[in-house]
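Hi R.,

Here's the chain you asked about this morning:
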Amino acid sequence: MTEVVKVYNSLIYKLPPFLEPIIRILIILVIGFTIIKISEGIIIRVLTVGMKANTHIGESKRKTLISLLKSIVRYLTYFVMAVNILEILGVNTTSILTAAGVGGLAVGFGAQSLVKDLISGFFIIFEDQFNVGDYVEAGGVAGTVEEMSVRVTKLRDFGGQLHIIPNGEISIVTNHSRGAMRALVDVQIAYEEDIDRAISVLEDVCQEVKDKRKDILEGPKILGVSNLDSYGVRLTVYAKTLPMQQWSVEREIKKLIKQRFQREGIEIPYPKMEILNKNKNANKLDKE
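And the predicted structure, written out as tokens:
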């Protein structure tokens, strides 16, 4: 390394005075862009190979994280290159750095929310909290993740509205697309009905649903009597499903229960209203 420096100095001193700063600047540019190229290659290689083992990390997340890290390396290198070039040109960089520090402090107070969004977005991506296509609750909104970046996350709810949430406002995330989901169906029968007969019919329904659906991981099974209320006896059916399929399974179970109970003559109680016409009764008494 010492020999290289000696050779470099000897070559520089032999150059005409007007060429020396130009050569130094060219060397800084070559070294800087070489560092950027090598660093970007390392980032792509490490994140591409290292993250392939995690199946939950989608391609969009990987690209976002790679782009973020490449930008950080690029701008830091540009800054160092610019400072060194200015020094070669005889500019006092100390005063510039001081001014930049004061200006950066002033801008920093006004850009706290932006910095918070970027940092939160980085950790959301790095920790793999959710992915594009996941159904999540975040920032007080529930919906499907349509797009995510280091600054904002875009969710589309069931009504079709697109919600753009700054990542800094996302403190708690509930991800409904990770692991097995729970399908839970409550069904009521009248107090006059035979509970064992109703459970037997429900078992047939559960078997029919299980044979028909390939997105059920466990069950369906009857948990038994879960409540006794003013309308009747409540029975509960439970199943585990693939992510985002629990509502479809619940609808299927409810439909078949209604059809089978109607066929078997098992009453499903519901609120009824009886209207008594007092004037009509009074007229009857007067006639008598």
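Helices lie at 2-14, 20-51, 59-88, 93-110, 112-126, 195-212, 246-264, 278-287.

Let me know if you need anything else.
M.
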